[in-house]
């Protein structure tokens, strides 16, 4: 019996069996079988979406440092084997029962902080932290506590409900943002995490004011997006800090006024920044994920009105010890998840701003690789040679 196949926009085949039910799709995915091992490109089975779920054909996926934390076994609550990846863009292939906000053929970005729209945090206009987020509910399995991925007879875990290092993935409807059909998916995939996180950390979390002074620790895809956000907010001095001087040219191109390598300094970087600015910067951002740079970023901002935003992720179980006097004089220490955006509402708007050329996140893409070279993408990240590598499926 032949399987009826309907071809959707952009040639996405809908995989239905003769009874009209969606079929399991066999496709390639990058599987991390255990921590500390390279990814392995495998043939996996991707089950059809259940009620309230969406199956997406990925077109492009960026590599973020958070995926590296996962591969090294440092991500809280992750479980192996797992399909990593959380910065992707694709096309809806099929939808489960009850899904109304997207349909097959729609261009989408899966979002790593969901927006259920119903919990008290989703209803709070000041918050983007949905109670269905991974700190509340592990996202190693889909919300019904089962996986849609199998490989060689084994169940494979999801990552943040995204698992974008696969040709097809299944995510809950409230973790999908529908975007403008004109958007180039190989570029706007960065809006799924890195760009939105950094840009939003400046605009939404710190609320950088015009004429202010900012310091950004770490000039990867996230930190450079903070530089772009500070510039867009009208900061007059943007000091970029990194131990890799090869990042400085891009930082300057994106708006940094000064670049500093702490290893070239005779004093601790917080003292250097305080000397440079008088009382410390108005806003500091940590986009690395190290205890010492988190403390240095906090100490670099003005002791009275300074705001320090923590973006980098520490290894699972890490703790920071701090003299509370550092906060007593009025400094504020804040964290941000994907830049404070309510992602289902805001990612489509950010995509529109991208299309209107209000920012150029393409400047963060240093490498474009075929999906099969995913390990090469991680090598470039580890060697400090890439900002963002985008994998194409
Ligand atoms: P990246 O590895 O591309 O960039 C990190 C940068 O930090 C590199 O340029 C390094 O050279 C630099 N660096 C390393 N050590 C030091 C040091 N001691 N002093 C100064 N600079 C240093 O990472 P990324 O930009 O993809 O991600 C940055 C962090 O942000 C990482 O911890 C990631 O997990 C986290 C992140 N958080 C969120 C969130 O929602 N909070 C989202 C996305 C990424
Ligand atoms: Zn919610
Ligand atoms: Zn990320």
TrEMBL record:
<dbReference type="InterPro" id="IPR002328">
    <property type="entry name" value="ADH_Zn_CS"/>
</dbReference>
<feature type="domain" description="Enoyl reductase (ER)">
    <location>
        <begin position="36"/>
        <end position="391"/>
    </location>
</feature>
<dbReference type="InterPro" id="IPR020843">
    <property type="entry name" value="ER"/>
</dbReference>
<dbReference type="GO" id="GO:0008270">
    <property type="term" value="F:zinc ion binding"/>
</dbReference>
<comment type="similarity">
    <text>Belongs to the zinc-containing alcohol dehydrogenase family.</text>
</comment>
<dbReference type="GO" id="GO:0042572">
    <property type="term" value="P:retinol metabolic process"/>
</dbReference>
<dbReference type="GO" id="GO:0005829">
    <property type="term" value="C:cytosol"/>
</dbReference>
<dbReference type="GO" id="GO:0042573">
    <property type="term" value="P:retinoic acid metabolic process"/>
</dbReference>
<dbReference type="GO" id="GO:0004745">
    <property type="term" value="F:all-trans-retinol dehydrogenase (NAD+) activity"/>
</dbReference>
<keyword id="KW-0479">Metal-binding</keyword>
<dbReference type="Pfam" id="PF00107">
    <property type="entry name" value="ADH_zinc_N"/>
</dbReference>
<keyword id="KW-0520">NAD</keyword>
<keyword id="KW-0862">Zinc</keyword>
<protein>
    <recommendedName>
        <fullName>Alcohol dehydrogenase I</fullName>
    </recommendedName>
</protein>
<keyword id="KW-0007">Acetylation</keyword>
<dbReference type="InterPro" id="IPR013149">
    <property type="entry name" value="ADH-like_C"/>
</dbReference>
<dbReference type="Pfam" id="PF08240">
    <property type="entry name" value="ADH_N"/>
</dbReference>
<dbReference type="InterPro" id="IPR036291">
    <property type="entry name" value="NAD(P)-bd_dom_sf"/>
</dbReference>
<dbReference type="InterPro" id="IPR013154">
    <property type="entry name" value="ADH-like_N"/>
</dbReference>
<keyword id="KW-0560">Oxidoreductase</keyword>
<dbReference type="InterPro" id="IPR011032">
    <property type="entry name" value="GroES-like_sf"/>
</dbReference>
